[in-house]
Amino acid sequence: MEYWLVIALANLVGHVPSHILRHGAYRHIFRIRLPENSVIYMGCRFFNPWGIAIGHNSIVGDHAFLDGRRGLVIGNNVNIAGDVRIYTLEHDPSSLAFEAVGGPVELKDWVYIGTRVTILPGVTIGEGAVVASGAVVTQSVQPWTIVGGVPAKYIKNRPIVRYELNTGDKALFQ
């Protein structure tokens, strides 16, 4: 099937108002590695969904954009709020040919990403780190720290907390 048709279909599936149907399509048609106990809420959009792997008990909020072109790994118990953008490929404005450059993005276990965060290619968000709402992450984030701003900068350390997100209380239609 034509690449852009597959991407269009994956993005249309994001509007299906049933977790069961939406997640079935994500797993079996678009090959997202998505365990039964993780959640992708409505309105999610993708580039290369087959390049995305999501761990256990993780949540991707509504209207997120996930780019799997260079690989996107989301760990266990990761909470991604709504309207988050994660990119693995971008254009190099210094290149005479405006070439595409990038690298994989990884969100380690127990990461929390606030609303409207943008994460750029090649970034690793360390275990337990928090990215404050509205931040633009251009560099990797150290474990158990809180960052925010544009570009994201260190704010303070976060206590080491290990929890299991409750992804079992899904409403049938959302």
CATH topology of the domain at 3-89 and 104-125: UDP N-Acetylglucosamine Acyltransferase, domain 1
The overall average pLDDT, rounded, is 93
Sheet with the most strands, sense and barrel status: 7 strands, mixed
Biggest sheet, spatial arrangement of strands: 1-4-7-12-15-17-18
Shape: globular
Low-pLDDT runs: none
So, CATH architecture of the domain at 3-89 and 104-125? Answer: 3 Solenoid
The amount of helix comes to 10-25%
Secondary structural class: alpha/beta
How are the SSEs placed, and which strands pair?
Elements: H1 3-13, H2 19-28, E1 39-40, E2 45-47, E3 52-54, E4 59-60, E5 65-67, E6 72-74, E7 79-80, E8 85-86, E9 89-91, E10 100-102, E11 105-107, E12 112-113, E13 118-119, E14 124-125, E15 130-131, E16 136-137, E17 145-148, E18 153-157
Report on this structure.
- Helices cover 12% and strands 28% of the residues.
- The mean pLDDT is 93.
- It is an alpha/beta fold and 174 residues long.
- The protein is globular.
- The protein has two helices and 18 strands.
- β9 and β10 form a beta hairpin.
- It has a domain of 109 residues: UDP N-Acetylglucosamine Acyltransferase, domain 1.
- The protein starts with a helix and ends in a 17-residue tail after the last strand.
- The strands form four sheets. The chain has a seven-stranded mixed β-sheet with strand order 1-4-7-12-15-17-18, with no helix packed on it.
How would you sum up this structure in a few lines?
This protein is of the alpha/beta class and 174 residues long. The protein has helices spanning 3-13, 19-28, and strands at residues 39-40, 45-47, 52-54, 59-60, 65-67, 72-74, 79-80, 85-86, 89-91, 100-102, 105-107, 112-113, 118-119, 124-125, 130-131, 136-137, 145-148, 153-157.
